[in-house]
Amino acid sequence: MPFASLKHQARQQAQTLFDSLPSSRPEVITEEQVRQLPEPVQRFMHYTRTIGAPRARTVRLKQTGLFRISEKPNAKWYPLSAEQYYTTQPPAFVWWGSIQVAPLLAVQGLDVFHQHGSLVIKLLGLIKLADYRGPQADQAELVRYLSEIIWYPSACLHPDLHWQPIDQLSARATLTYHSLTVSGDFHFDEQGALTTFVAQRDRDFEGRPATLTWSARADKYRSFGDLFLPGLGEAYWHLPSGKFSYARLEVTEIEHNVSAVYSA
């Protein structure tokens, strides 16, 4: 099938990542472990029902939603379908998405962080339109990984993730992976729901390397198995012209500690 190439590549990479993990039973998250975290993060762990749940070693999820491929103020939204895979030790992910820009025309993306970051974009899954990699991509993709621990909250206890309280409703997380360090601010409501993540993220802007403010919003919490996690995410770039939303994603399923990729 003409649309299968990049998706197949994503699943192969994710399965290799899963297969590289040692076989062991994940430990159960305890109240004592969570007490070391800043108070708003503790409330988040309670709110998401993470205490008493197994630590996530692998994660797989599916998404549907809308995506903009242009940053013009009135840019059109296009339908998106995606699947994503994570490991927590080491921190890594593989994301594949398909954006339907016309009835018979799709743009596909393969977004990866595994030791290094990369983003490949192809038309029809075959014709390469962009290949983004290097130190900028490393930083950008590790920031993305950090922001998405909302879907596997046990990663808040990762040994290389250090928390610093900001106030009663926010905390700063700093994640170090080898020589790369990224930080982001997590903002919560009074019940413990994480509402917003804000960080500085590298990218190209107007043909030049740049570091811009990037944020993500989480909403519509619901049950996924025994956990209570956001069902909706929205991503923004904070451009000189203003805050620009470019991705609105609904998570349709999340599974932790599954060792196989999707087959359909």
Under the CATH scheme, the architecture is Clam
Count the beta strands: 13
Largest sheet: 13 strands, antiparallel
The total of helices stands at 4
Order of the strands making up the biggest sheet: 6-5-4-3-2-1-13-12-11-10-9-8-7
Global geometry: globular
Order of helices and strands: HHHEEEEEEHEEEEEEE
**Distance from first to last alpha carbon:** 13 Å
Residue stretches low in confidence (pLDDT < 50, at least 5 long) are none
Mean pLDDT: 95
Task: Count up the domains.
Answer: 1
Instruction: Find the CATH topology.
Output: outer membrane lipoprotein receptor (LolB), chain A
Radius of gyration: 18 Å
Q: Structural class, judged by helices and strands? A: alpha+beta
The first-level CATH class is given as Mainly Beta
Roughly how much helix do the residues carry, as a percent range? 10-25%
The proportion of residues in beta strands is: over 45%
